[in-house]
Amino acid sequence: xxxxxxxxxxxxxDDHEEESKxxxxxxxxxxxxxxxxxxxxxxxxxxxxPKTGTTWLKALAFAxxxxxxxxxxxxxxxxxxxxxxxxxxxxxxxxHDKRDPDQLPLFATHIPYDSLPKSIIESAGCxxxxxxxxxxxxxxxxxxxxxxxxxxxxxxxxxxDLFCQGKSGFGPFWDHVLGFWKASLESPERILFLKYEDMKxxxxxxxxxxxxxxMNQPFTKEEEDKQLPxxxxxxxxxxxxSSLEVNKNEKYFAEFGIxxxxxxxxxxxxxxxxxxxxxxxxxIDRISEEKLGTCGLKx
Length: 299
Ligand code: A3P
Known about the structure:
Helix content: 40-55%
Shape: globular
Bound molecules: adenosine-3'-5'-diphosphate
Number of helices: 15
Order of helices and strands: HHEEEHHEHEHHHEHHHHHHH
């Protein structure tokens, strides 16, 4: 098994077929997963398709959740990568059956909505925060990441075709987004649906405050007076996180041989314009329109 499979990403079409014979395929998706995860009513899950802003959203959710515990001490985000602070259900050992009492009830996953552990979907209390991103930028980001992960020049055109056909880890992209979008319309109090682009353009801190409210930890007047929302936004900004030693040179996912810096590339909107041909961009836009247009979701 190649390393790619260990995190549910394949770059070869044939491998997808081989892999699907070996791994459970649930609702048409295949991936390694925590079958028996038992969600608790106060759990919060950061959910996303890979390369849509998971690392950023983990950092924000973690900084919001721990602002009272950390107090005057420096944030753990200054010395730990966001992925270390918020474990993935599918990659990290999450001891859900005998939880450490100090375990923050904050987890992350790339698992599609319909395939989430039942206890998450059925729990009345726990909450989901989903981030999505323009699939054109998502694809470009994914391609760069795969190149680093496999340490080879992944064929851009072939990977593009696979992405459009829905053959990506945790994919298809559009089904992933649609699953969470529909669920968020049905249960807006339980599922917060965010867009990377909106958050990037947010100059008045709307989304930091929205996240805190949704997580039942709204900023108090005193915290507002101390400009905590801005401090959290700045702490989690691409510029700040990507310049930290831990995120430049350390390897949290050492078994995949990938440096933390691979999760911080450009952090911009519209970098696809530097990589996709006009035809490629039109192809992705057409699929988005076909799959998501009638649901009122636009990028
Ligand atoms: P680019 O490759 O376009 O730069 P994920 O965290 O889901 O793996 O997504 C990675 C993408 O999010 C990368 O996009 C990365 O640069 C960007 N990113 C990482 N940290 C960010 C931050 N703090 N703010 C905005 N974007 C960030």
